[in-house]
Design goal:
This is IMPCT protein. Pfam families: RWD (PF05773). Residues 2-104 form the RWD domain. Residues 105-145 are annotated as: Disordered. By secondary structure, the chain is of the alpha+beta class. It has a domain at 13-106: Ubiquitin Conjugating Enzyme (Roll), CATH 3.10.110.10. 42% of the residues lie in helices and 17% in strands. It contains 6 helices and 4 strands; from the N terminus they run αββββααααα. It has a 4-stranded antiparallel β-sheet with strand order 1-2-3-4. The longest helix is centred in the middle third of the chain and has 17 residues, at 67-83. 13% of the residues are buried.
Length: 145
């Protein structure tokens, strides 16, 4: 409870109690700029054994967060948990996510296309990808650059 009170105090309006009884919380995290480009919502469920015996159950929500970006961030959060076994880690998670968003904002990554909803983005996924697939004819490294 002390951790939840501290997080609520630190993050203010960005911290949200979804369900107090079930210990479900959500925090909106952005890149700290005046006009944030990168925003992510971290939803956590604190199981009865948290923090001493069980990690938080979490979900990362952002329309732009998929594939490799998602896996890297998820792996980073799990590393933080393993390095801090038995300790409260939500603050560390939030600040690590903020750090990643700031790095994205400062890098050459284009802004996320927030005009598309996740439903619209997912709508075209599926068999179309297989039909559009063509083997790469050129040097794969050059194509990636």
């Amino acid at each position: 409870m002390d951790e939840i009170e501290a997080l609520s105090s630190i993050y203010g309006e960005d911290w949200c109690v979804v369900d107090e009884d079930e210990k479900i919380y959500c925090i909106k995290i952005n890149d700290c700029l005046d006009q944030p480009k990168w925003t992510l919502c971290l939803q956590v469920i604190l199981p009865p054994g948290y923090p001493t015996a069980e990690p938080p159950i979490y979900q990362l929500n952002a329309p732009w967060l998929r594939g490799q970006d998602y896996m890297e961030l998820a792996n980073t959060l799990e590393e933080i948990y393993v390095q801090n076994l038995g300790e409260s880690i939500l603050y560390l998670w939030v600040e690590k996510i903020r750090e990643v968003l700031i790095e994205k904002a400062q890098s050459s990554d284009p802004e996320p296309d927030i005009k598309k909803t996740s439903e619209e983005v997912d709508e075209g996924d599926g068999d179309d990808f297989l039909l559009d697939y063509q083997p790469i004819q050129e040097d794969p490294i050059k194509m990636l650059n």
